[in-house]
Amino acid sequence: MIAIEKTAVQTALENLTNQEVYIHLETTTGAYAGLRNAGATPVGAYIRNGAITYVRGTITGEGPYRVGLKMENGWVYAEGLTDYEVDANGRLLLAGHDSEGRLTVALELSRTPFRM
Amino acid sequence: MMERHVLVVFPHPDDETLAAGGAVALQAKQGSTVTYACFTLGQMGRNMGKPFFANRETLPEIREKELHEACAALGISDLRMMGFRDKTLEFEDPETLIGIISDLLAELKPTLLITYYPGYCVHPDHEALAAATMEAVRRLPDNARPKIYCQAFSRNHETDLGARDVLLDTSSVWENKYRAMKAHKTQTAARIEEIERALAAGGAQKEQMIAALSQENMYSYRV
């Protein structure tokens, strides 16, 4: 992955508009959030291989970035995105990393299901 | 003491090294056969290397390679990938996990079992697998049960459990454990930096670091 190039991501989002795509979306503090800091609670949410169709996909912000996917009947969004890659399988991988390089958020789109 | 067969049960590549690497390497060095049943590929790990070089989709393959390298360093000759998905074990039917572990116990008849301490191991996958492992042992007749060593690391574990009672001098294998830690590059970069700094500094710093890697303590457990 490399630092997000906004226009490249915008193009990739548009290439996947108006068709069924598989989505991986997650955000997490990690399971150990409460271990060092007693007041913290591990928090996370995750969906892998949900199938969606969006009619408009937009990247905004000046870094970290936000991506919103507008669907006929709803929305998907992620914020805190810093890095991206269009991989060899043509999948758009977006992720946010903290200063230690740990993943904080991921939004990925693919025409075929992600490996389980 | 050498064990005929050691069964190590953990959910993530790196648990075998970080929770029990010294104990495992020591057993292997003494001539025990060691089987590691690793239940997931750690697909959902947050650490991607430092600086990061993995992503959510490449991480499983990279971690599998790291695990093979770590097993070689520790002397684990029989690595079994159990094929579950990271962070989902607690949502599986417990009987599925118990059944798999019961089959391993029946096949291998281990004399020593190494896993996490149920109730004191923090991560939901650790807890689910430790509970299933103990239940599988509980279902064995008394005289067929292996000895059990457990690792605990929740905030309250020492208050509740007291001091560890299995005290292992791992000075003969500290380099094996260190090599295994290094193998798990995506997960351990920060810790490795710290160790390397101490080893390079020499003198008391180096001695202290080697001493820390030369002692591994665990809890014995009775089902």
Q: What sequence of helices (H) and strands (E) makes up the elements of chain B? A: EHHEHEHEHEHEHHHE
The overall average pLDDT of chain A, rounded, is 95
Secondary-structure element order of chain A, as H and E? Answer: EHEHEEEEEEE
CATH class of chain A: Mainly Beta
The quaternary organization reads as heterodimer
List the chains of the largest interface with their residue counts. Answer: A-B, 28 and 23 residues
Please mark out the parts of chain A with pLDDT under 50 across 5 or more consecutive residues, or reply none: none
**Mean pLDDT across all residues of chain B, rounded?**
97
Strand order of the largest sheet of chain B: 3-2-1-4-5-7-6
Large-scale geometry of chain A: globular
User: What is the CATH architecture annotation of chain A?
Assistant: Distorted Sandwich
Give me the count of strands of chain A.
Answer: 9
- Residues in helices of chain B, as a percent range: 40-55%
**What is the end-to-end distance of chain B?**
22 Å
The 3D shape of chain B can be described as globular
Strand line-up across the major sheet of chain A: 1-7-8-9-2-3
Radius of gyration of chain A: 15 Å
What name does CATH use for the topology of chain B? Answer: Rossmann fold
Structural overview:
The complex is a heterodimer of chains A (116) and B (223). Chain A has 116 residues and is mainly β. Chain A has a single domain, classed as Protein Yojf, Chain: A, CATH 2.70.180. Chain A has 2 helices and 9 strands; from the N terminus they run E-H-E-H-E-E-E-E-E-E-E. Chain B is of the alpha/beta class and 223 residues long. Chain B has a single domain, classed as LmbE-like (Rossmann fold, 3-Layer(aba) Sandwich), CATH 3.40.50.10320. In chain B, strands 3-2-1-4-5-7-6 form a 7-stranded mixed sheet, sandwiched between helices. Chain B starts with a strand and ends with a strand. The chains are: A mainly beta (116), B alpha/beta (223). The interface between A and B is medium-sized, with 28 and 23 residues.
